[in-house]
Amino acid sequence: MSTHKGGASRPQLILAATPPPEQRPLLTRHDFARLELACFEQLDLLNPMQPFVRAKLEEARIVSGNEIAETVATLGSIVRYRIEDRMLERRLLQLDNRHAPNGQYLSVLTPIGLALLGRSTGDLCEAELFNGAKLTIRIALIEHQPEAEIRRRVKSRQQDELPDDPGPEAA
């Protein structure tokens, strides 16, 4: 869309509505920083994924790794999801966009991987493909999340460090 003033044509900026906070994806500070760096270092300006990654970064809510729920897909998470009405798939989300022949990894620098990042178990999300087609994806389960595993290990160590002998106070 353009406006004409004095014979000149200027593009008009049309801002998309920002979804309400509860519908925006959650990213940890670490995942946000890694994705932002990848957007500018791994994706050139002509890469069709760059606008999608930028949009994800702009709409995301940022939280610390300690605050993110274990039901949210983060980098390194193992996610079970279903595209449309197809069979359930299980993939590990990774940042690297190199091809893995065994099919167990899914790069977040692909439309489906990016759609899953920051979404929770039970969420329904859309992945827009390069040809404009859209896929509907339902997240069935987050099997493993690195941040939740770290919290479990820290808690376990803290419990292991508690003394078994209550000392003279118990007598």
TrEMBL record:
InterPro entries on file: GreA/GreB_C_sf, Tscrpt_elong_fac_GreA/B_C
Region (Disordered): 1-20, 152-171
GO molecular function, one term: DNA binding
Name this polypeptide is given: GreA/GreB family elongation factor
Bias-annotated ranges (Acidic residues): 161-171
Classification via SUPFAM superfamilies: FKBP-like
Superkingdom of source: Bacteria
GO BP terms: regulation of DNA-templated transcription elongation
Organism from which the protein derives: Parvibaculum lavamentivorans (strain DS-1 / DSM 13023 / NCIMB 13966)
Keywords from the named record: Elongation factor, Protein biosynthesis
Residues in Transcription elongation factor GreA/GreB C-terminal domain copies: 71-143
